[in-house]
Amino acid sequence: MAELIWLASYPKSGNTWFRSFLSNLISEKEEPVNINAMLTDGIASSRDLFDDWTGIEASDLTFDEIDLIRPDIYMRLIDDSDRNLYMKIHDAYTCLPDGRPLFPRYKAKAIYLIRNPLDVAVSFSYHSATTIDKTIASMGNDEFAFCSGNNRLHNQLRQKLLSWSNHVRSWVDNEIMPVQVIRYEDMRNQPWETFKRAVDFIGLDYNDDKIMQAIQFSDFKVLKQQEEKDAFRERPPRAESFFRQAKTGDWVNHLSDEQVKRIIADHKEIMQRFGYLNEKGEVLS
Questions:
Q1: pLDDT reported for residue 241
Q2: Is residue 284 part of a domain?
Q3: Percent of the chain scored above 90 by pLDDT?
């Protein structure tokens, strides 16, 4: 049975890297899949997806009216597919006023990609071409959302992100959908075990050689070289590049002591839960 596999994450937590891995895993070619031709199925907040499947211009509706329709689109998508769909998503996992989840359990499961919020703050600030202080404030704001302004027509629908901590909680603690948590740091430091666990969770049947090839073909150096050669269509207009460094622990080179304290104060519980802080509140490498 085909399933809709949500590739969920707070921004700058490894979603594109994981999509590249999946693309190379399901590709039949003996060369890396180009970053502009990944074999996954777009992003859940695509305005074009909404308009095409409903026959309604999203611009004629309010944000809340759009959200009431979105669950039906995802159920129709997977019903009409004869293969797994792999869809990127940055929305938090929330429910509508009528109690329905915005992202139904119907034929679906999720990979949730999580990254140390200290590194997220640095990477997200570069990605957004904004200050680290502003990024830290957004990460602690439960009202934070993408594409929620009315000053222009966005190419994506509104996405409620909540705070970083509550974004994590919304996905990993929901009691509706099966979720496999994948740490960015484990993708870097234990790639074989980590990607193999994700493949097994999805239910894919690929041998070890194919999985290792997909890991190698989606290596950061490969992705960076592809971006330098072809540019990357998902790069924000104000960002110098999409693939910056992909380091773990790079926050020590960018965050002040005060900024570190603010992030820990906002997200201590979740950071401890997922191994980014010890019981004393000290940062773990």
A1: 47
A2: no
A3: 80
